[in-house]
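Practice problem. Given the sequence and the SMILES for flavin-adenine dinucleotide, write out the predicted structure.
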Amino acid sequence: MSLQVLQEIPARPAAGTAKGAAAGSAAGARAAEPLCHVNPDWLNIESVVENDLCTQCGACAAMCPHKTIELVRDEHYRYFPQVRDESLCVERCKSLCVQVCAGVQEDPSLWEQNPIVAETYDEYCGSAITDTWIGYSTDPQIRARGTSGGLITGLLVYLLESGQIDGVLLVGANKQDPMHHDISIARTREEIEDSWGSKYYPMPMGARFRELVSATERFAVVLLGCHMRSLRLMERKLPRLEMSIVLRIGLICGYCAGFKAIADQARDWEIELEKNKRIDYREGKWPGNVRIQTEDQDRRTLIYNFLTRIPFTTNYRCTICSDLMNETADVVVGDAWLKELTDRKDEGWSVIAVRNPAVTPLIESAIRDGALYLERADTETFVRSQEKPMRYKKHALVTRLKFARRVMGRTLPNIDLSRFPDGFPTNFWNRLGNRLFMLTQWTFALNDPLRRAMYRFVPRKGVQWWVRSIFLMIAHDGKGSFLSKWLLKKEPMLNCDA
Ligand SMILES: Cc1cc2nc3c(=O)[nH]c(=O)nc-3n(C[C@H](O)[C@H](O)[C@H](O)COP(=O)(O)OP(=O)(O)OC[C@H]3O[C@@H](n4cnc5c(N)ncnc54)[C@H](O)[C@@H]3O)c2cc1C
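Answer key:
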């Protein structure tokens, strides 16, 4: 495969007058930089939004020294930064917001392994790991309520109560208005417990990063991969931020459905979303249900059914994300999607892998004091637990980037493709499935009337057949006949329907 084609793409000048003018001079000089897909001299974060590269993490708002960036929710329920006074950027700023933007800067120095060759492929998929366990919180209530094993909530409660942290940045439901969420620094057991559960859309967690700078307190954070990379970039600018965070818990992120997936689900159930009292994504026994409650309605569907909405509602930037396993976190946590565990049909199991050995004693103390039940596992088990999303986010990365650039004419982030000299083990079906996924996203995600018409006029079984076919193609490992797997329907669509 030729990576060269992508590497030669010159930097694109930012759209807009002030931005274009300010960026213009230096951009010409830097256009020849081989691995740069976007203009390194973008003036401010609005150029990132215009080019559809914003991950909605919100770190730009926290980084801005002039406090001129605000996060505004658009008609698709996405939180995008808006610059209130651009003159401050023109006159007084060094584009700090763009410098900490993980949507643009896939900075190779954030990753440790270079270059990645076939022999280190598993390690590359999982990224650098020192210890891996599978297990759950020993508190039965936390485990039952938690997304998978309640491991994150159990660990955080333990660290707080044993005085090893003073607070944690996390996101919980807003009890007054379930259309919104509370991003807070929790300092009590109740606040941590109230934030349980995955919300399958990007949250502007980064907007609160600056509040974690402290001379006296020690914090933990729970973040998606995009948040985590922004945090790492921001820590380089604010060393005291790095010092006050003692534990960075990263969530594995295979797919981000976006809040509009829940809006579509509510519409299908004829629920007025504004009247809802509570939204849950993984309620009940593992793997859990999406559940929406109002005064007079209480509807739920298994998470797998809900996830078929992903290609229709996810964001463009998520479709070219390369960070499945939260590669810059101290520890990464996800569902232990292992057939031997899902077959048990008991309460959930989480997988946890340590990247930063300095935090291993925190996990070991939680095991020793009985807060967590964890069994040792190896890297192969960790990678196997995410087998199918790997073929989407890792194997097909170059296919996706090329498709985005050549067919969709999109701007790409600065991904250093020279890290992958051996290429990736893909096959015809995997590549086709990934392209169809992106085409589906492109056609439907921002076209609400078309998407709603599709849900209204195409039989539900037809929509599910389409998505199942796409996911099966993506998941195809090249072994055996794809057509027989597709026709016999024995292969799980996603990891989780094993
Ligand atoms: C968008 C998204 C995609 C995911 N994709 C995968 C996947 O493909 N494969 C996989 O194995 N696991 C995935 N996960 C992780 C998985 O859903 C569980 O979060 C994980 O297994 C931990 O479960 P737990 O029971 O230990 O955590 P819990 O005890 O339930 O705690 C979950 C924690 O996550 C935090 N949180 C929830 N939503 C968000 C959010 N949007 N942004 C930041 N923090 C949040 C909460 O504040 C809470 O502290 C994803 C999570 C999210 C949010």
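Check your answer against the key. Residues 123-387 form one domain.
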